[in-house]
Amino acid sequence: MNSFYESGSTLSIDSSFTQETLVPKLRKMDLSVVVRMDVESKHIVNFELPSDISFPNLTYCTFGFESMLSDGSIRTSPLEAIDIDFASSFPKIREIFIYSCFKLSRVELFHGKTSKLSKLSISSSFNSFDAFSQTLNGIFAHCPQLTQLRVVFLNFEGSNDNHWAIPLELCPKVNDVSVYDSRAFSEVQIRSDAPRQLKRLFFKDNLGLKLIRIDPAVSIVGLLAINDFDEQTRLDAGSTTYSRCTNINTSTSCLVELNFNNVVFDHLVSLALLRPSVVNQTNHEELKGERDISNVEAFKLDKRVLDVLSDPSRYPNLKIILCEFMLDINSYIDCFDQLPNFDTLNLRDSSIYTPLEFVKPSQISSLTLGDGRYPSVKVANQEKLRKLTLNLLDECSVIEVSNCPNLDTIELFGIEQSCTLSVKSCPLLSTFRWERVDSIESVSFDESCTNLTDLFIENEKPFNMSIPDTALENLKFIHLGGIHELSGSFPNVQSLELTSESPFKRLELRNTRNLRELIVQGAPSAFSIDDTSMVSFVSTPKETEVHKVFQKLLEQNAYTNSLTKYLILDEPDDAGEVTETFFGGRLFQNGDEKRCYFEEEPQCPICLDQMTEECIILRCGHALHETCIRELLVDSACCPVCSKSAEARKFRLDAY
């Protein structure tokens, strides 16, 4: 293993460095080029730098590593102590990341001096809460430029009954605090005597965290996220703390704690109402999930949520709601329609096993249904709906979309059941995407879908698809997986991609005057295409019917790939072979010599003089003087008669 590598000015302190060789090796290196350093040696227990070793341009440093051993166990960093004088050794440091240093007990970074450190991340490190808190207190006291603090996956040995205070008065620029996936604290306090603003305060999945206390002087002007385990976390904060939030993500217990009924949220744009999470411990891993909620609890939650949103005057700018529980969607629609700017709903309720019918008219323009267990979904009568997204509906086998006159986009992801989908009375639908799907029973569009331009279905097995000719006419982009056959008129299609590698019956493409790209991974038993004039790229396996057609085109293109000069004949060449015709005459090939005959006296359309001995005939069939067309191509690439491209055709065949 190399002891030192530089890649984009990165220095790796890997396992070729030992406790004894670290400093001598560093003294021999040009450290001025290093902007990032990763300390990941399995031999270094105490990382200590003398003050005369300086990384003058280092801005980012990581301590720690994880590696998988042959027996399946995980090796982590052996670091127990870090001792660096940032002011001397890392004068430009901006960000440090300490991870998988479970034995870490002592960190000294400042030696009484301040640092320019602005971002700190700690993950799965420190052997005790005392070691962690002492390190953080030192950072708070010596880093006036600190803006971002991230603490994740902490789990100290012994009790997690630890009270941690974040003193904002010592860090005047901190505006982003995240604590998640930890079992290290029972209480966290955001402390400040003077008025302070945070752009982001994020707590999620912290087992054992019972109280988050935010001092009254602290206000959050961006995101407040509190998602707890099993409703055990309480939020102790006054309404002035969260009344200026633009985004609130909260679990059910915190929703009860927040006194929404007496607050006007002038700035709130997005509200997420989440289920509490749970953790199930095993010997090897932690599995997180949503806690099951009884019918009685769900009814209480519904009532509480509807009560919270009952006064629309308190949410003048609320546009987006994400909800993980919704017993009666019609009750919510009545409530949502009172909100003056609300238009986006994301429903993720995995507890509903009954058919979902979103049929009551509403003002929603963007609807997402995800993570549900509905056997069927019906969306209808939504005059303002523009985008519909269905995601991870494991049990859904029937999807109906109808009477949505302004619907523009339908997207589906990860539908596992063999599913039937129909779209009716959606005249403005332009984009349909269905990704990550194993089996489709059928897809149908009715005569109203005349504006469909993008059709993307990422299926593996063939299915029944019904698209009327009126809908096919405006398609521009088609992507399909497994098919039995495809036959139709595609006057506006620019790109057609068939990704299934299985053979299929036939591929019949008519009226393809705008087709530019064709990708066919399978082998149709029969293939025809009536217009290849605009095709510039084809990808297909060798020796297929598609390959044969475009291999011939490639050969023809090579033959006509330059401005071809023709001798002008006074009489037809009876001995020559007529190769093709052009506007006003015929082309002859006699050996390597190319000749042309004009039925009438030829005149150059540029200079208007007669052409007597030689001429250039463009792809479009118009003839001109060579000097005239070459002068024209300096400023224009079009034929002066018909405005079609006068340049040589560019075509690529990717055969494999």
Automatic annotation (TrEMBL):
Entries under PROSITE patterns matching the protein: ZF_RING_2 (PS50089)
Gene Ontology cellular component annotations, sorted alphabetically: SCF ubiquitin ligase complex
UniProt-listed InterPro entries: LRR_dom_sf (IPR032675), Znf_RING (IPR001841), Znf_RING/FYVE/PHD (IPR013083)
SMART domains: RING
Example GO biological process: SCF-dependent proteasomal ubiquitin-dependent protein catabolic process
Keywords: Metal-binding, Zinc, Zinc-finger
Highest taxon of the lineage: Eukaryota
Domain named RING-type: residues: 604-643
GO molecular function: zinc ion binding
Keyword Zinc assigned: yes
PANTHER family: PARTNER OF PAIRED, ISOFORM B, PARTNER OF PAIRED, ISOFORM B-RELATED
Protein name in UniProt: BA75_02107T0
Organism for this UniProt entry: Komagataella pastoris
Organism placement in taxonomy: Eukaryota, Fungi, Dikarya, Ascomycota, Saccharomycotina
